[in-house]
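Researcher: We plan to redesign the surface later, but first we want a full-length starting point. Tokens attached.
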């Protein structure tokens, strides 16, 4: 990097920023440089005496003299490439920096969520129910009340009818909530329990009435009632408030009527 000592650093600081003094040099062969897409330009003679004078500039260098020397150096290089006597290529960037582009605020591009199709959502629900209950696709179809051939149509891109997959999504929502609350193994044991009629909860999932009854039983697990009464749950911030709240009324004694003298 070329460094010069200016007579007035504070005054010339803004002027010196307009130039990029950093040459990008390489010792590669001419063929290597040409392979990266640089266009060969006509050679021009370079006044290396001026170049050396700039390097040896002293503290008395003025702003006008520095501008003249920089203009004399940047013009022969034609802003891209040129040959030197040793046969190597020197890459010089003499254009002004892109100040506006460097200071432009960067705004991230919003990422739009990828919405799954109804067929993909149905296939995902079938896969989850298989994992939660450890059953096959035909058993899931029997519980959800749709044809086992529907899975093949969904895989081919055909969207299902909403009425066909209504109970499938209801079943998926129930089992997913139970799995998050109890865990997979406990959900399987809970569904295997039999009710008063000798039918397990898992078997009752196959029809709408049975599904509603299982949902009603699951409400006690998913939505626990508070064990503390509302009045006992009140917390007084200060002990004085508790004493005042339970103190008897000031006017609890009977009021005496004053007789007036005639």
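Model: Full-length starting sequence:
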């Amino acid at each position: 990097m070329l460094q010069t000592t200016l007579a007035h650093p504070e005054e010339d600081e803004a002027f010196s920023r307009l130039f990029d003094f950093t040459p990008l040099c390489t010792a590669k062969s001419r063929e290597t440089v040409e392979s990266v897409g640089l266009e060969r330009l006509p050679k021009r003679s370079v006044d290396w005496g001026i170049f050396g004078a700039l390097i040896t500039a002293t503290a008395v260098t003025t702003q006008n003299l520095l501008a003249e020397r920089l203009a004399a150096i940047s013009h022969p290089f034609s802003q891209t490439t040129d040959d030197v006597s040793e046969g190597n290529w020197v890459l010089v960037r003499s254009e002004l920096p892109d100040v506006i582009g460097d200071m432009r605020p960067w705004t991230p591009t919003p990422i739009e969520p990828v919405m799954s199709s109804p067929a993909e959502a149905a296939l995902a629900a079938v896969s989850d129910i298989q994992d939660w209950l450890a059953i096959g696709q035909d058993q899931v179809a029997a519980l959800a009340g749709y044809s086992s051939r529907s899975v093949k149509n969904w895989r081919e891109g055909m969207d299902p009818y909403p009425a066909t997959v209504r109970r499938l999504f209801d079943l998926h929502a129930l089992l997913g909530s139970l799995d998050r609350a109890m865990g997979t193994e406990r959900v399987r044991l809970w569904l295997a329990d039999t009710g008063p009629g000798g039918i397990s909860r898992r078997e009752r999932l196959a029809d709408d009435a049975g599904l509603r009854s299982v949902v009603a039983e699951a409400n006690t697990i998913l939505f626990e009632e508070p064990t503390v009464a509302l009045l006992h749950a009140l917390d007084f911030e200060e002990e004085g408030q508790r004493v005042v709240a339970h103190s008897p009324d000031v006017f609890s004694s009977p009021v005496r009527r004053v007789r007036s003298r005639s």
